[in-house]
Amino acid sequence: MFKYVDWFLLSLIFVLVGYSLLSITNATASPFTGGESSLSDIFSNLNMEKTFWQSIFFLSGLGLIFLIMLVDYNNLRHYTEYIYWICIGLLVAVYFFGTTQNGTTGWFLIGGRGFQPSEFTKVGLILAFARIMAAQTEGNENGITRFSQLWPLLWRFLIPFFLVAIQPDMGTALVYVAIFIGILFMAKTSLKLFGILAGLAGAAVPLIWFLAPEYMKTRLFTFLNPDFATSDQVYHATQARLAIGSGQLTGKGLFAAGSMSQLGFVPERHNDFIFAVTTEAFGFIGAIIVIALYALLIVRTCTLAVRAKDDFGTYITIGVVAMMLFHVTENIGMNLGLLPITGISLPFFSYGGSNLIATMIAYGFVVSIDMRRTRWSL
Length: 378
Known about the structure:
13 helices
């Protein structure tokens, strides 16, 4: 069965993470003066702590991918409900007992490291949603046409969406929306039901706006009305765009003296805005390489979704596609100033253990599903 491992998919992940480690090292280095004349001078300016931990997270993720590959994903059908409720329990617990970072109460501190349940809930939702939709559509060519078919998925979506929104972490909550819509689309849900959902979402907007914290309202206001925002309100977006523009065609190079990222002018430069730092260092060409790698990864994952042997595998894989597509589009869009700042990471690229390991678990299921695209007998 291991002959059918998609090595092209895994190679794309390796290249993205390798590129990421280079960018994280560049982003976290102490400022260079340009007078460094030896390797010892260069290494003395490097702070390898985050690069080291990101490597550990990646290796841990590889181990989990291998373990997931050993298990037939269909054996998880009966356990997806338990996984779902464990995720819900963690989201409830973190609200009361978690720590707050950047205004969001979403982390447990374990040994000085943060564990973010909302990241792993993405995988739990994909598995739970896939099982529910597969039960509705396997042997049914008409797709989802009645609200009664949609309801089991809808209420399971609303619970984690609400729990994450009140942390508050609207960026992650919107990822849940993307997963929900992606799986509904793949299940051939009728346009009438999509219209009903759109109406319900529109009716909920005033409530969401009322509950949203002030800083989120400010982010949306500054995005829609940048001419009326103060310099402090648009600081993050402005600095990211300046860094991207300063990279020009080929970039300033790694550890360039006087670069905005080296001098600390780009906020959250090793996670949320690592795309801006990468573009400053490697220029337009480097940015296009990053986008091309993600495009290949997403298109390849779509291909694997289509050739899965059953609906359950297809829905899991398309859920991963929806998650990735939203993350990549939103993160790069906010770096370029084309979308509001939400604080979600760039998968396989931004620093952070929870997101990297959760994403690798998701791709472990994708690889496992594709390995079993033929019905094997032992």
